[in-house]
Amino acid sequence: MWRRLRREALTDAPAAFGSTLADWSGAGDTEVRWRARLTDFPFNVIVWWRGIPAGMVGAYLADADRVELVSMWVAPFARGRGVGDAAVSAVLHWAHDREVGLSVKTDNQAAIRLYRRHGFVDCSPPDDAGERRMLRSISMNQRPDAP
Ligand SMILES: CC(C)(COP(=O)(O)OP(=O)(O)OC[C@H]1O[C@@H](n2cnc3c(N)ncnc32)[C@H](O)[C@@H]1OP(=O)(O)O)[C@@H](O)C(=O)NCCC(=O)NCCS
User: Fold this and answer.
1) In total, how many domains does the chain have?
2) What is the DSSP letter of 125?
3) pLDDT tens readout for residues 8-65
4) Ligand 1 center to residue 121 CA distance, Å?
5) Domain residues for 46?
6) Residue 147 domain-assigned (yes or no)
7) Residue 125 within a domain
8) For a pocket test of ligand 1, which of 46, 114, 131 has the largest count of ligand atoms closer than 8 A to its C-beta?
């Protein structure tokens, strides 16, 4: 299921991700590789909407105090219905008392609005000029209105 959704994501929104469909096609599209991806990243979630797999997100420990959110995607039919919120919330729950970082393309306003709503703010300049780095600090967890 992860493979199917991730390939849909790379087809639907190629500009949003560092990986490409080509990277995960042909010789790159093996069960061993997909299983390794799910093992290498300790947190992988599929979000269902009305009984249909509708979104995905992953996360890993970038260092002792920081989790990195990756592979966020919501299927077009399910956008604007809280699936992205559920995916971000799942990562924040898993991160517990760690800060959470992510990279997002500078022109990806839908994703930036989603992340801002969950307390992410711009942080250090990104390595890639076309991306922005966002961080959600642990102090957000103490806010009474924290999502
Ligand atoms: C970014 C994304 C994950 C948001 O998922 P979502 O569940 O629709 O999230 P939200 O409902 O919070 O919507 C976020 C923004 O998308 C826009 N949006 C809402 N409904 C939409 C729809 N039906 N179609 C397209 N965009 C929509 C809105 O601008 C919304 O911002 P707002 O709530 O401030 O108005 C999803 O659009 C997506 O998967 N995009 C392609 C992949 C991608 O960009 N991944 C992020 C990589 S960093």
Assistant:
1) 1
2) P
3) 999 999 999 999 999 999 999 999 999 999 999 999 999 999 999 999 999 999 999 9
4) 17
5) 2-142
6) no
7) yes
8) 114
